[in-house]
Amino acid sequence: MIERPPEWLNPPDLKTATGIQRAIADAVETADRIGTVQRVAGADTSMKWRDSRGPIHAAIACDDGTVGQATRIPPFPYVPGYLGFRECPALVAAWETLAVKPDLVLMDGQGRSHPRRCGVACQLGVLLDVAVIGVAKSLLCGVVAGVLGDEVGATAPLVDRGEVVAMAVRLRVRAAPVYVSIGHRVTLETAVAWVLRLSDGRRVPPPVRAAHEAANAVRIAHAAGADGGNVDIL
DNA sequence: GCGACAG
DNA sequence: ATCTTGTCGC
C-alpha cells in the first residue's frame, strides 16, 4: 500500500530557473522524512533534432542549483532497448564534474521497465553507485493493468510478461501519466513516494524538468561554440 | 511473418 | 530526442 503524501507543493514560478530550483529544494525539505536522502537531482540528455549520431549533451541538475554537464559522441545511433549505452558515458562524465554528489537521482527514462529489466536508469545507478529512479514519459514495454484514475496521485501497475515493472502515476489532471520504475537502490514503492513528494502539479516532476532545461542549455551553448567545440570522444 | 519500439 | 505555430483554459 502506498501512502499519499500529506500535502502538495505550491506551483513554482515556471518562468524562471530559480523557480524550478526552489520547487525542488522545497520538496526535499518535506520529503527527507521518508528516507535519509539529503540531496536530490534530475538527469537528462539533449541532442540535435534528427541527428541520432551527433553529440549527446548530458546534464545533472541538483537541488542546490548546481549543474554537472558534459558532451560525448555516442557509440551508435538510437536503438530501442539500448539507450543506456548511448547516454551513460555523457551522464557519467557530467556526474564527475559535480563537486558535491546527490544521494538520489531522477532519470528521464525507464529503469526496470525494460525488455531485459535494465533500462538507462538502472545502468546509470550501477555506474554511479547511487540511488536512481526511472521517470519515463512513454512506454518501452508492458501494459497498464486495470484503470488509472483521473485524479492527481492516481497509480496503476505496469505489467510486462507477468511482472510488475513500473507504476503509471498521474501527476497532472487531464495529462498522460509518467511511468515510475526502479533504477537502483530503491524499491518501487519508495520510488513512487518520492516522485509524488517531488511533484508540483505538472506532468513531469521538477528535478527532471530542471535537468531537461539544463541539458538543452548545454546543447545550445555547444552549437554557439561557447565550449570551444570541446567534445571528448569515448 | 508483423507490429511495436524509452530518448 | 527536437522544431514551429497556433489554440485553449485558468
From TrEMBL:
Annotated positions for site Interaction with target DNA: 78
Function recorded in the entry: DNA repair enzyme involved in the repair of deaminated bases. Selectively cleaves double-stranded DNA at the second phosphodiester bond 3' to a deoxyinosine leaving behind the intact lesion on the nicked DNA.
Cofactor: Mg(2+)
UniProt record, GO biological process: DNA repair
Lineage: Bacteria, Pseudomonadati, Pseudomonadota, Alphaproteobacteria, Sphingomonadales
Protein name: Endonuclease V
Binding residues annotated for Mg(2+), in chain numbering: 44, 108
Primary localisation category: cytoplasm
InterPro entries associated with the record: Endonuclease-V
Highest rank taxon of the organism: Bacteria
Keywords for the protein's UniProt record, in alphabetical order: Cytoplasm, DNA damage, DNA repair, Endonuclease, Hydrolase, Magnesium, Metal-binding, Nuclease
Gene encoding the protein: nfi
Catalysis: reaction(s): Endonucleolytic cleavage at apurinic or apyrimidinic sites to products with a 5'-phosphate
